[in-house]
Amino acid sequence: xxxxxxxxxxxxxxxxLFLALGFSTLASAQVLEPVKWSYRSVDLGSNQHELVFTTTxxxxxxxxxxxxxxxxxxxxxxxxxxxxxxxxxxxxxxxxEVEGFEPGTTMHRVIFEEPEPIEEYDANFDxxxxxxxxxxxFSKKIQLDSDAPLTITGSYEFMCCDDSKCLPPNDSPFSxxxxxxxxxxxxxxxxxxxxxxxxxxxxxxxxxxxxSLWILFIFSILAGFIAILTPCVFPMxxxxxxxxxxxxxxxxxxxxxxxxxxxxIIFIYTVLGTLxxxxxxxxxxxxxxxxxxxxxxxxxxxxxxxxSFLGMFEITLPSWMINKTDSKADRxxxxxxxxMAFTLVLVSFSCTGPIVGAILVKSxxxxxxxxxxxxxxxxxxxxLPFTLFAFFPSWLANLPKSxxxxxxxxxxxxxxxLALGLKFLSIxxxxxxxxxxxxxxxxxxxxxxxxxxxxxxLGKLKFAHDSDVHYISVPRVxxxxxxxxxxxxxxxxxxxxxxxxxxGYMPPQQTHDFDINSIVRDNLKIANFNSSSNKxxxxxxxxxxxxxxxxxxxxxGLEGYFDYDQxxxxxxxxxxxxxxxxxxxxxxxxxxxxxxVWSDPRVLQLxxxxxxxxxxxxxxxxxxxxxxxVTSTHDGKVKKTVGKKFAxxxxxxxxxxxxxxxxxxxxxxxxxxxxxxxDLDVDKFIAFLKRxxxxxxxxxxxxxxxxxxxx
Length: 711
Known about the structure:
The protein has 711 residues and is of the alpha+beta class. The chain has 20 helices and 21 strands. The chain has four domains: 35-196, Sandwich (Immunoglobulin-like); 212-402, no CATH class; 438-535, no CATH class; 539-701, Glutaredoxin, CATH 3.40.30. It is 45% helix and 16% strand. The chain has a five-stranded antiparallel beta sheet with strand order 6-7-4-11-13, with no helix packed on it. A four-stranded antiparallel beta sheet has the order 1-2-10-5, with no helix packed on it. A four-stranded antiparallel beta sheet has the order 8-9-3-12, with no helix packed on it. Helix 3 packs across helix 4 and helix 18 (601-610) packs parallel to helix 20.
């Protein structure tokens, strides 16, 4: 191989890549696009369609309502080029003919339905204006005049501001294509068939949490840096770098090999993540996340890794595999660097295996992108020091010496793996109602595990491979303070404290045997019941006993149902709207919503007094009677458990299979407002509930339709 030519070409390519990335980043940084639009059409049948425009608004920015005072901001407006071939279903629709964007043309401004805006003083215009933050959905129903193909075109115009500046008004065209009775209308727009529902993007029926991949990526990078500080990896940095610098003809060749070495590490781990993604795949998501077999297996894997980190044994690969790759590393060139990287991966497996396994278990719950992103982030951080020290060998003199502190890192990781593994056992326990890991038992384990970690950091515990601790260093003191503070934070949870910071990782509050809050709440209920002047009316006072209430419970002492038909019948009987909560035993976001949003007194008051509540668990394994089995209209399969029945109901009715998912129904089972997904903004959740109540009262106030056939 011609190393001189190869490394020059490689560096040219690398320089070009970094320049291209730099210029693209600079260009993107100069273009502000705080509001992103998408649009789509929904076929309602009988030649009726709903046109839906969805906006995603960056934090701290405002998109203004269609209704703003004169002298204020430019209102959001939707214009049609012409109104031929269709009409609006609403006979009172507001249509204004205005001058078009091109001279000599006219357009028709149509007022769409919009969500309830925020009405506040705006310093940019020195007046009270109506605006939207975070997101807004504009919709309008139309009736096509015939089955003939039709294209509807127009533009939307909008203005957006933050607290200190406003961007110039912007306009963009739109186009809806309808192909008549022969085919369904094509849903068009910047994000085809996308629907934004107050904080969550729903694409192809899946709620996309755009930040989750970034969180996993950052978590994986941190895990990669932690892996470097383990006894199997850290001592190899100077050994590997010395090999590159002393066994090459020149520095340029050594640096090329170092780059090849670093990229090979990234490639090997990313391929591992890809294999996990391909072999597991999205079809196994529900089974992996809720069935007892994978969850108990994951729990045992974490315990196995923890035992290894604590020094019980070493996880090693067969020596023949390591020797084989090590012999090929002597070839030199790119292949030599690759096999040397492969050797590092194999040799360091006893320390990196538990960390890599934790990332894959965390990310591979049936997902496709997550394992790839996780392994790429881990390997990027893992390969970085080897490459940097090869380029700057003088840094080796400042590298901390290997010693007992490396084993201390392993032991701390062992405690963490032991604590995190309990989450998987807890999911299986909740899903199958075993009752072996209730909230107080789970908390007791965590308190003991982290207390032992704190004592270990103080040198009060010693494992097999630990060195003698003659004095406590400042970093150990700081870490022990953090750990013991965390332990003290968890102690009140043993008596029923909500521990909101851990709500997503703890078993539900209702599994707690000794909950002081619930005891006080029950005593207050008895007092209110005995006082005729204060007696409250609840759904349970008027309707039958909820099914499955012997093992399913609502949080915060709320009363409700766990079966849709039973809840709807109760809502109709007492003439209240129905609040549907699609949830799951293994749903971390569901627990966070209950702990941080439902716990707000305003939310509790609305849920308790204004709604009939139905919590539909999509992962519960309880078998239902044969007469209640349902045949899915989605996949044609018979659903025989509580979870499968309501998971199918969510998918078939809303084309969504992610939780939490909140829907408000009237007494006929029709939606009142757009559904809502995971969003910890309490005020927006209250606004969602109040809009549903207002819509329910408006529908209830309408007189029944005149039925001539009944006369």
